[in-house]
């Protein structure tokens, strides 16, 4: 009888732990969404608070983007500068192999592209289409912009 009781208690505890893990995961995903909303909207106070409290600055969202990528693509120049100052890795690639700099070039965000270019990622880094930075810029009509960043 004791064995059955212990076995039943073990199952109940397992379900409770599983439910707690699920709740923690949901709460963490909610935090991830808030962090990315802050990057998208350029809310630097929220970004700085998250990072200062230990939130991983290079956390990826469910689309494989980092906050730096989202801020760059959204034209949030001050947020890009802040994230770089806080240690964001500008050389990370999304699921297509594109970097934040490539995103800034697509959106013609020249000032942001300049900040990201100074992060000194390898210009030979290739995306999943096999394009390095110069080839990528050429396809998107941004060769002159890229050239201006090197001067």
From TrEMBL:
In terms of domain of life, where is this protein from? Bacteria
Which InterPro entries would you find in this protein's record?
Ankyrin_rpt, Ankyrin_rpt-contain_sf, Multifunctional_ANK_Repeat
User: Which residues constitute the signal peptide according to the record?
Assistant: 1-19
Query: Key word Transferase present in the record?
Result: no
Please report the residue spans annotated as repeat (ANK).
Answer: 63-95
Q: Which UniProt keywords apply?
A: ANK repeat, Repeat, Signal
Q: What is this protein called?
A: AnkB protein
């Amino acid at each position: 009888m004791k064995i059955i009781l212990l076995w039943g208690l073990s199952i109940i505890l397992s379900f409770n732990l599983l439910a707690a893990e699920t709740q923690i995961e949901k709460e963490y995903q909610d935090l991830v969404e808030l962090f990315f909303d802050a990057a998208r909207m350029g809310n630097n106070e929220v970004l700085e608070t998250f990072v200062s409290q230990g939130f991983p600055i290079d956390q990826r969202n469910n689309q494989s983007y980092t906050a730096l990528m989202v801020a760059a693509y959204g034209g949030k120049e001050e947020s890009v500068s802040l994230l770089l100052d806080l240690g964001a890795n500008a050389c990370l690639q999304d699921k297509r192999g594109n970097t934040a700099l490539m995103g800034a070039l697509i959106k013609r965000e020249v000032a942001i592209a300049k900040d990201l270019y100074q992060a000194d990622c390898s210009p030979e880094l290739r995306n999943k289409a096999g394009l390095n930075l110069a080839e990528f810029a050429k396809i998107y009509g941004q060769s002159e912009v890229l050239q201006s960043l090197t001067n």
